[in-house]
Amino acid sequence: MNRRSFLGWGAAGFAALCSSVAVSFGAVLRYLVPDVFYEPPQTFKVGKPADFAYGPPTFLADEKIYVFRDREKGFSVASAVCTHLGCTVNHFQSDDRFHCPCHGSIFAANGAVVHGPAPKPLPWFEVTLARDGQLSVDKDKVVPSTYHLMV
Amino acid sequence: MSRRLSVVFFALSLAALVLMVFAIRQASTPGWKDYQRTFLQLEAQGEPNAAAKAEVLDTPLAIHQVMLPGLQRVDRCTTCHLGVDDPTMKNAPEPFRYHQGLGPHASTRFGCTICHGGQGLATTVKDAHGNVPFWPNPLLPADYVRASCGRCHKEGNIPGVPELTEGRHLFETEGCHGCHKLDGVGGSIGPDLSEEGASERSPQWLENHFLNPAQVSPGSAMPNFHFTRQQARDLTYYMLSLTNQQMGTYYSSFNQIPSAGYGRQLFVQKDCIVCHAVGGVGGKTGPDLLGVTKRHSLEWLDEQLVNPQNVYPGSSMPEFDLDTNARKALVAFLNSATSDDAKAILSGNGHALNPEDAAIAAGSLDFGRFGCAGCHGANLQGGVPNPNAQGEEVPSLLHLSSDYSRDDVVEIIRNGRTPPLDNAKGPTPPLYMPAWKNMLSNEDIQQIVAFLWSKQQKTSDSW
Amino acid sequence: MNFFRDIWNSIVRRDSLSTDKGKSELVFLNVWLHIHPAKVKKEHLRFRHTFYLGFITFFLFIILVTTGIALMCYYRPYPSQAYQDMKDLQCVVFLGPFIRGMHRWAAHLMVICVFLHMCRVFFTGSYKKPRQFNWVIGVLLLLLTLGLPFTGYLLPWDQLAYWAITVGTNIGSYAPLVGGQLRELLLGGHTVGQAALIRFYVLHVAVLPGLVGLLTIVHFWRVRKDGGLSRPLWKLEPKPVEELVTIGAPAEPAALRVSSAAQSKTYGLMEVVTGKPIFETVSPDEEEDTVFAYPYAFLRESIALMGTVVGLMVISILFHAPLEELANPAKTPNPAKAPWYFLGLQELVSHSALFGGVVAPALMVLALLAVPYIDRNPSRRLRERKWALWLFSAFVVANLVLIIIGTFFRGPGWAFIPPWVHVVAGAE
User: Fold this and answer.
1) ipTM above 0.95, yes or no
2) Are A31 and C302 in contact (CB < 8 Å)?
C-alpha cells in the first residue's frame, strides 16, 4: 500500500512536472512572438490625394507600393514585391509593365504575370480615404485589380 | 518517508504549474486592453448598422506605436489615447478625446512625448505618465506644455508662446551666461544649462528657484534677481525648452517658424527695400511688391526667390541663399505687407554710427549676452552678495577708471580673478571673475571695455 | 504494433524498471543520468549532508542559460539600443519582466549557492585527499560565477549598470603593473562605452558560460573519479579498514563482491594492479546501506530542482528586476556602488586602494586555491581541525560583514550611514 501510493504520488508529480514544462515551453514560444514591430506598419497613410500626379504610378520605396491615379477611375495601389522571391519590381513607362530585376518576371499593368517564374499576379491593396483626408493603404486587405477609390 | 517525499514533489510540481499559469494570465491581461475595448465600444456606437458595429468590435487589440527616428523616440501613447487624430472623438471622455489645435503637428509625425513629456515606451498608465522612479521626465503640467515648442523652434517668435521669447530675452539681458554655460558659451560658476529641460527638476522647482534661489537650494551662489512671477515663469519656459537633443533634419528645419514676423526680419536684413517698393514706398529698381502674392502662385514666388534667372532671364535680382522656411516666411510677410511697413522699415535704417559708438553699443550687448550683468548688474551697480569677499558683495564697475587703466581691465577680463578675501581664514567666496579669454575674442573684450568706460562716473570726493 | 515498439526499443534499451537490472540500466545506459552511480549510499541522500547546494547551483546555471538565450532574442548590445530593448522587455514583450526577473534573481541566487556550497565542502573537510584538485576547480568556478553576473550587470545600460561597472573595473585597475592595461583590455577603451558593452556581452553570453560549462563537466567527473561524495561526518570510521584496489569501476569500490541486493550487477574488471586506492573504502557490512538511484536519488533531486524553480518563480512574480534611468556618463549617482558581491572589495578599497584592491583579493583567491595543499591535516573530524575551522569561519564572517557594511551602511560620499537613517537626497 505504502509503496503503491509512493509510486502513485511520484507519477502524479511527474505528470505535473511534464505539464508545467509543456506550459512553460508554450509560454516561451509566445514570448518570442513580438507584440510590437519595428517595421513599417501594414496599414499606413500615404498623403493627401492632391499629392499624387495623374499618369505614371508613384513609387513609395519604404512601403514598397505603386500608387496609381487615373482621371476616370481614381486611386489604386499595387504591391511592388515580386510574387516569386520578394525582389522589388520596377515599373517601366516605356511598356507600362512591371519588371523584376532578379529572375526576369514581367507583370502587366494590371498585375497579371506576363513572363517569367512568378507564380501569382502582383496583389492590389485596399486604399481608403481616412477621416483626416489622407489616403490610407491597408496591405492586409488584398483587392481585385479592378478596385479603385474615386476621390 | 518516501511517500512523504513523493507528495512534496507532486506539490512543488503543481505549484510550478500554477505559478506559470498565473504568470501567463497576468501577462495576457494588461490594462491597455481594457482601454481599447472601451474605445471600440465607443466607436461602435457611431456606426449605423449591426454589421458595421460588429466589424468595429472585432478589431484586434494591439499596441500602437509611433516610431520617430528624427526625434529619437518611440511613442506608444496612442495605445490608449486612441482618438487623438479622430475629430469625431471631440467630446469623448479621456483618454480617448481628440487633440484639438495640433495644426501641422500630427501625432503620426510628432508623437506625444516631445511636447508632453512622459515615458513613451511604457504601456501602463502610471509608467507612461512617467511619475515613477528612474524616469526623469514625467508628463509636463498643462501650464507648461507650450514650453516644449522651443525644443524645435529655437529662434524667433512662436505664435501663442510669448513666454519663450521673453524668457530667452531675459536670459540674454540679465546676464545668466556669466555663471551658466549654454551650448558651450558661458561661465562655470553655476551648472551648465544646455540640458536643463531634460533634467529631473520639475517646472515648479525651476519657477520657485527663479523666485528665490536660496529657498529651494540652500547655499546656492545664485543671487536673488527679484524676478516677478511672470518673469520666473518665462525663464522656466525657456529652461524647459533646453534639451540639447539632436533633432532630425525635418524638425530642425523649423528652427524658426516661417511667420510674417520672421519674414519682415529677413526683409530688413536682406535690404529688399533698396530695390523694391511696397505700395510706392521704397526702391524703384524692382517691381512694387504690394499684392505680389495675389498676382503669382506660391510656387512661382518660391522659385523666384531660389533662382530669379529661371523665372526672368536677365533679371537683376541676386540669388539669396535662403532656406525653405525663410522663403516661406518672406512670402508670408509679403502677403500682409503695406506701404506703412515700408515706411517703418525705411525710417529704422540709415542712422549711421561712428566707430566708437558702434563699439560701445556692441559692448553693451555683450555685457548682457555674456553674462557680466548677472553679477555686476545691468547698470554696473554691482551689489550681488558674495560672502567673505572684500566688501561682502560683487563690486560696482562705475568707478573703474579711478583705479585701473583700460589695459588692466582687459587683462582682468581675459584671465579672470579671485576676489580678495575679507577674512583670510574664512571660506572661499562663492562668486569669482572667470577667465574669458577662451570664450571672448580680443575685439569682444575691447568693445566691453569701451562700454564700461562710457559709463564711468567721476568720483566727486576723491581721496 | 511492432513498428512503434521497434522504434521505442531502439531508443530505450533498458529492462523494465520493476527489475533491479532495469533500474541500473536506466542510469548507466543514459548519457544524462550516468553521472550518477546506479546505486547510491543512503547517507549521501541525507539533506543535511550536502543541502543539495552543488546540484541547485548547477540547476540555476541551466535556468540562467535558458532564460539568457530567451533574453538574447530581444537584446542588442549597443548603447543607444540596449536600454530601449530593456524597456521593451519591461513594457511590451509577453512575459518579458517575468523572464528577465528569473534571469536576474537566478544569477544572484547562484552566487549565494556557490558560496554556500564552498562553505559546506570546507566544513565537512571534503577538499582533503583525494579531492584536492576538485576543490581548485571549484574555486575557479566560484570566480567565473562572480564574473558572469558582473559582466551581465552592464548589459541593461542604465545608471545602475554603468556606474557599478565603472566602479568595479576601477577596483581591478589598482592591481600593480598590469592593472591599468587589464582594465583597458576589458573595456576596450579608457571608459565604459560602446567597446566595453560589446566585450562584456561576448564574455557574458559566450566565453564565461562556455568556461563554466567545461569546468562543471570536469568538476562532476572528478566527483565520481575521486570516489563519489565524501562520507558524512557522522559516519566517519575511527580507524581505516583494509585496502582494496580496483580499476575499471572505481565508483563502486566495494562492488567486486557480488551484492545480494543487486544480483544482476556486472562489472568488466580490466585488471588488478597493486597500489593504494585513491578513494575512501567501505567496510563490507556497510554495503547493504545503498539504494538504487532510481527512484530514491532522482526523487530527492527533483524536489530540490522544483523547490528552486518554485522559489524563483515566486520571487520573479513578486519583484521586478531593477531598471534605472538611462546611463549618463556625466552624472554619477551618489554613492556609486559595485554589484553587491563586490561591495566587500569596494569597502576595502575605500580604506586602502593597494591593500583593499590588490593585496586582500589576491591573498583571498590564492589562499582559497591553496587550501587543500596547505591544510595537510588528514582528519576530517571537526574536533581535530580547530585551526582550519576558525580561519575559514573568520574568512566567511569577514566577507559577510564587509558586504553588509558596503550594501546597507554606506550612503552618499561613502559615509557610514545606518540603513534606518533617512538621507535627504538632492542637495547640490
Assistant:
1) no
2) no
